[in-house]
Amino acid sequence: MLIFEQLLVSFIAAAGFAIIFNTPRQVLWPCGLVGMCGWFVYTLLGLANVDAVVATLIASIIVAVISQLFAKWFRTPILIFNVAGIIPFVPGGLAYDAMRQFVENNYDMAIQLAARVVLLSGAIALGLVFSEIINQMIRRAKWKRINDRLIKD
Amino acid sequence: MEQHTVTQVCLLAGKIMLQSGAETYRVEDTMVRIAQSFGMENAQAHATPTAIMFAISTSEPTNFVRIIDRATDLHKVAQVNSISRHISSGELTLSEASKQLHTIEQQKDTYPKFIQVLAAAFVSGGFTIMFDGQWYDFLPSLVVGGLSYGLMTYFHEVVKIRFFAEFLAAIFLGLTAYLSVQIGFGYHIDKIIIGSVMPLVPGVLITNAVRDLMAGHLVSGLSKGAEAFLTSFAIGAGIAVIFFIV
């Protein structure tokens, strides 16, 4: 039940952000779906006591893989699905928290949070790049048909 | 003459993409690809978040476009991308491409303002639940988040100073969150604030900055990082103002 409501709200959050970012109408629900999958993996890993940075890394790899499939399917740039997919675990709230601690003179706490923001966003970026590398390896493996469509996308 | 138009088309495509929040490497890639499909094999492009430089070949003069406003409009990115794909496959001529790019540039947002505000409201509510909030804080955070996002877009148009709109919106956000708890509408002010601040904070920008750095686009990465830093600073300061007062 708990995980069900998490799935629902993460779908809403990802699709809502897609609307804020002016995503084309026909890819709104896939955007929500990518975000939901990412958050699902992230929460599952969180429940299994995996460290947040590692969980973020794995979740963003999953997001990137699904985004690549959707990008081919809907013939839209992968950027659209990537952005919507990472929204649920992007450290925006943490960045705000870090800055608030700075302004309130809690420098110790602020530095801790800021370091965490850098690590988490590094993990997301690494996850997205990682899946691009896998993608390139698939391309080199002479999967001609996928190859052709990927270049077009 | 032909070279002149190709340069114009490339620069326009790059300008639209950069203003709509595409990654710099994608902008450079698209411009070079368009130029190549019109037979300019040695085209050079360099994009940063604030400017694009483009030369049709290494010995030709370099052209330059200044980018002042940046927003996120993924629909435009997708459209320019599909135009560049059509150019590469030879389905579009130079003048057609130029005409289509001009129409894209004039386009307004895909969704009307009130739908975007509504979306921001639901994003806020959703994030409150995702950050272990309770359902009784869903509605307060929905109202607070929607209002402050609407206010921020309004300030963006009225106040032309960057980061100030975010600062004012954050003050308003902190105030309404505080008031909603005071009148018994909401319960946990922290959960309400963290949820409703999400549509304002530049989470994606931070990630893009790191990604640009990793891709070797050092100038773009650092400047995007600075932008993200200042935006979250403005928001954090705005909320802190309320916490100082009350």
Radius of gyration of chain B: 21 Å
Tell me which protein chains meet in the greatest interface and how many residues each side has.
A-B, 51 and 56 residues
Structural class of chain B: mainly alpha
Distance between the termini of chain A: 38 Å
What series of H and E elements makes up the topology of chain A?
A: HHHHHHH
- Low-confidence segments of chain B, ≥5 residues, pLDDT <50? none
Q: Outline of chain A, from the CA principal axes?
A: globular
Strand content of chain A: under 5%
Percent helix of chain A, as a range, is over 70%
Question: What is the gist of this entry?
Answer:
With 153 residues, chain A is an all-alpha fold. Chain A is built from 7 helices and no strands.
What does this structure look like?
The complex is a heterodimer of chains A (153) and B (246). Chain A is mainly α and 153 residues long. Helices cover 82% and strands 0% of the residues of chain A. Chain A has one domain (2-152). In chain A, helix 2 packs across helix 4 (78-86). Chain B has ten helices and three strands, in the order ααβββαααααααα. Chain B has a three-stranded antiparallel β-sheet with strand order 1-2-3. Chain B is elongated. At the A-B interface, helix 1, helix 4, helix 5 and helix 6 of A face helix 3, helix 5, helix 9 and helix 10 of B.
Annotation keywords:
heterodimer; A: 153 residues; mainly alpha; B: 246 residues; 2 domains
How are the SSEs placed, and which strands pair?
The complex is a heterodimer of chains A (153) and B (246).
Chain A: H1 2-20, H2 28-47, H3 52-74, H4 78-86, H5 92-103, H6 107-140, H7 144-152
Helix pairs in contact in A: 1-2, 1-4, 2-3, 2-4, 3-4, 3-6, 5-6
Chain B: H1 2-19, H2 24-37, E1 44-48, E2 51-55, E3 63-66, H3 74-88, H4 94-106, H5 113-130, H6 138-158, H7 164-182, H8 189-196, H9 203-214, H10 218-245
Antiparallel strand pairs in B: 1-2, 2-3
Helix pairs in contact in B: 1-2, 1-4, 2-3, 3-4, 5-6, 5-8, 6-7, 6-8, 7-8, 7-10, 9-10
